[in-house]
Amino acid sequence: MKLKLSEDSSTIKLLLFFILVAYLFSLSMRYFWVAEFQGMPQFQWNNELMINTNDGYFFAEGARDIVAGHHQPNDLSPVNEPLSLLTAWLSQILPVSFETLILYMPSFFGALIVVPIILIGHAFGQARMGFVAALIAGVAHSYYNRTMTGYYDTDMLNIVLPLFGVYFIILAILHQRNRFLIPITLSFALYYWWYPSSYAINTAVLGTLLIYTALFDRTNRHLYKIALFVVIGILSLPVLAKIALALAVFAFFHYRPQLDQKWFWPLFGAVAALYFATGGIDPIWAQLQGYLLRESVSGDAAGLYFYNVAQTVREAGHIPFSVFAERISGHTLIFLLSTVGYILALIAYRPLLITLPLVGLGFIAMSAGLRFTIYAVAPMALGFSYLMFLITQPIGKRWLRAIALIVFTGSALYPNYLHIREYMTPTVFTAQEVTSLAKLGELSNEEDYVISWWDYGYPIRYYSDVKTLVDGGKHSGDVNYPASYVLTQPQQNAAFMARLAVEYTEKGYETNNSAVIAEMLKAYQADTMDDLMTALQLDPESLPKATRDVYLYLPFRMMEIIPTVTLFSYLDLKNPDNKLQQPFFYITGAIQDTGKTVELGNGLSILKEKSILKLGNQEVPIKHFYQVGYDQAQKLQINEQQFASEGLNVIILGSYGRLLVVDDFYLNSAYIQMFVFERFDPALFEPVLLDPMSKIYRLKV
Q: What pLDDT is stored for residue 299 in this prediction?
């Protein structure tokens, strides 16, 4: 099937009008978050709102270092990441601050999704259908969440770029002109460069194209040409190499058509062989294992077993159908209508089948995690829009049809609008927390390490310009183990592990050996971590020589996730089947004093007269009772009472509106002792900054 390529000026003007209106609408919806937080100084730094995604600080660190022209060896700064490079370039040509740039980039780039959607509709002669779909997709739950103002991440183009690739494939199928082949390669090459994890979805698009060709037009050589240029675009080669190869092949087809018949299939076979030689499907299988075959523990080459971080990441977990549907279309009913419309659109516009991999990946979210729903947003929006136009088509009067279209469009937009007005996610850190990190940056050296949980790794590196053991990208079980151990063990063990982890991590960079825990145990000829700590207690001088300062960053926000942090080190490293009973930790802000009891929720209560905790039907003595809080001079005050020799401990954190019930394991942990009570062993640690929201200590061993 071939279509005419000529466009009159009125059609082009209408197309540009649709794009402009849809873009401005999508952009304006992203301003509600700004309006909500603009007047709140606790969310601002350097006279600008801070970003609201942890991962954004990873790319911001890289852009900052690119602009500065230097960074430290092994500091994990992403100076070669596309988003960092783009940000650094824009920061040098735009008259805005760096903070303003990273805040608004997601909105301005994310809103570009409307362009390929409208163009896809236009390719089928249905620009109005594309326009309505663009309005919906631009503000759909999951797409908005990951491209809202402040969500500085690669997601700002992760859907825009593949949609352009799909658009050019559809154009090439419909018009069968060589002129669309180079744009196909450029789209896929750019997408793969921008987001290397796109390899799987790119390959799925290729597979869908080949299946489409085999089913509907297997003798059409032009469809195989399209597939060839898709393959070139997704090769695991440098972008410039792929562009050069695409240009060479294009020149062969365009200027030597007489050789096409003889050399096409050998050329196709050579490029296909190059695809398998540079990776093939191995990277895809690795990704599937990571998301669909999650195990609670994973082993290393030394036979040690560690807890798998995928078990604790919410966006990589199972989600209910209602959440799945709402994230894609805003409402379950809209999603069901979109599904029906999408199926009908596939029948009406066969080349739209190329969008199936996007829909498939979006639907995988039911088992692989909500992060994938973003991929199905655009195709489902096209489906709803098609169904809407199909239903209203029999309406004879244009004004009545227009009203019906407006009503249908509004019904799809309204739940997404409500979501946007309610989805007021705060910034990653508050200004008070950032002030502490900035002060730490002034006191520390770029080679120093800060140990905290991986959630805070990127922001720590950005604001303090130091190194970290773990972060949002480096958080496998084996590297999380030492961080977890430091935070949850008593101070002596925590201090020993902090020094060991830092020095062995640096040594690992030199020897290209990341098995830090295995190397520790091997060096001290210890079978278990308990054996290693016992050896160090007997001979503290055997600790590695300190080559740099090490700091502990203990924020209040970590309080809620301490049980999760504990999972990564409270385990049998040699026997994954030995399920240790986890220590007891309970935190609540819902406290109700009924006179005789204090109700804590979830079946927990305090029997005041007996000084006993009631856990369901079980009664447990209160061992220690603490009241901890700050006075008007911001001095920490602690009142302690002991009621029994055994039992659980109750800690009232008055200044935070929280109550803790913990066993002795948590009570004696470095985090609880050093954050809650500000109690530290002066031989092991010294306080650097003691702020109510974050405590920072320097290691002295």
A: 61
Dist. CA 589–CA 343, nearest whole Å: 48
Block residue for tokens 């650097």: 688
pLDDT beyond 60 at 303: yes
Backbone φ and ψ for 430, nearest 5 degrees, come out as -90, 165
d(Cα 498, Cα 550) in Å, to the nearest integer?
7
What is the DSSP pairing of strand 694-699 with strand 550-555?
antiparallel
- Three-state SS for 124? coil
CA-wise closest residue to 499 among 529, 439, 435, 542 = 542
Instruction: Copy the structure tokens of residue 614.
Output: 């009631």
* Spatial separation of the C-alpha atoms in residues 408 and 402, rounded to whole Å: 10
Is 70 exceeded by the pLDDT of residue 301?
no
State the amino acid at position 388 in one-letter form.
Answer: M
Residue with tokens 């469009």: 409
* Strands of the sheet with 467-468, listed across from one edge: 467-468, 449-451, 550-555, 694-699, 685-691
Q: What is the CA radius of gyration of the chain?
A: 29
Question: Phi/psi at 667 (nearest 5 deg)?
Answer: -60, -40
Q: Is 58 buried (19+), middle (13-18) or exposed (0-12) by CB count in 10 A?
A: buried
| Contact assessment for residue 155 and residue 143, using Cβ atoms and an 8 Å cutoff | no
Centroid of chain to Cα 421:
22
With 90 as the cut, is the pLDDT of residue 38 above it? yes
CA torsion angle for 228, 229, 232, 233 (degrees, to 10)?
A: -140
The residues pairing with 317 across neighbouring beta strands, listed in sequence order, are none
Closest CA to 103 of 58, 52, 32: 52
Structure tokens at 176: 């069968």
Q: How far apart are CA 116 and CA 330, in angstroms?
A: 21
**Separation of alpha carbons 192 and 200, rounded Å:** 10
What confidence score (pLDDT) does residue 7 get? 67
Which amino acid is present at 41?
A: P
DSSP string, 439-453: HHHHHS-TT-EEE--
Say if CB 613 and CB 620 are below 8 A apart: yes
382 within 8 A of 130, measured Cβ to Cβ: yes
Dihedral, CA of residue 522, residue 527, residue 528 and residue 530, to nearest 10 = -100
Residue with tokens 């290693």: 532
SS3 content of the chain, % helix, strand, coil (to 5): 60, 10, 30
Rounded distance between C-alpha atoms, residue 353 and residue 335, angstroms = 19
Q: Is the separation of the CB atoms in 471 and 461 below 8 Å?
A: yes
Q: Is the separation of the CB atoms in 475 and 495 below 8 Å? A: no
Evaluate if residue 315 carries a pLDDT over 60: no
Phi-psi region of 657 (alpha: psi -120 to 50; beta: other; left: phi over 0): left
Kindly report the CATH class assigned to 431-567. Answer: alpha beta
In the structure, what pLDDT confidence band is assigned to residue 317 with cuts at 50, 70 and 90?
low
What is the per-residue pLDDT across 395-410, written as a single tens digit (0 to 9) for each? Answer: 988 999 999 999 999 9
Question: What tokens appear for 19 in the block?
Answer: 């794009």
Neighbouring residues of 123: CB distance < 8 A, sequence distance ≥ 6: 167, 170, 171, 174
Find out whether 662 and 529 touch, Cβ atoms under 8 Å.
Answer: no
Q: How far apart are the first and last CA of the chain?
A: 75
Strands (E), 443-532: 449-451, 467-468
What residues are paired with 307 via a beta bridge?
297
Q: What does DSSP say about strands 636-642 and 648-653: parallel, antiparallel, or unpaired?
A: unpaired
Please give the C-alpha separations between residue 459 and each of 54, 269, 492, 553, in angstroms, as whole numbers: 7, 47, 27, 12
